[in-house]
Amino acid sequence: HDLPPGLVKSSGEEGTGVVPELVMQAAMGGGKKRPRKQSKREEEWVEQLVARYGEDVGQMARDRKMNPMQQSEGDIGRRVRMWKEGRRKIGDGAGE
């Protein structure tokens, strides 16, 4: 195995074993991550938040009853965006 550019063996090391293999895997990129999908329960929760507050993510974050885990505005905003994209994809595929 050739080492990736910039990675040099220290003197006296053979370059065998687990660590060099892990370094090689990391250097090669490892693979693509699959995007996270929302669970049914998360979709229902976000849908309820949007039904109640519309686009006001700040209010969603401050609602103690509907947001008991106290997700931040940014986190809820990402979840709402993901939920909307999922609904858009469902809408696009339904007419085919």
Describe what you observe in this structure.
The model has no long low-confidence stretch (mean pLDDT 84). The chain is 54% helix and 0% strand. The protein has 96 residues and is mainly α. It is elongated and about 60 Å long. The termini are far apart. The relative contact order is 0.10. The protein has helices spanning 18-27, 40-53, 57-62, 73-94.
**Approximate shape:** elongated
How confident is the prediction overall: mean pLDDT?
84
Based on CA atoms alone, the radius of gyration comes out at 23 Å
Structure class:
mainly alpha
Largest sheet: none
Low-confidence stretches: none
Count of discrete alpha- or pi-helical segments spanning 4 or more residues: 4
The helical percent reads 40-55%
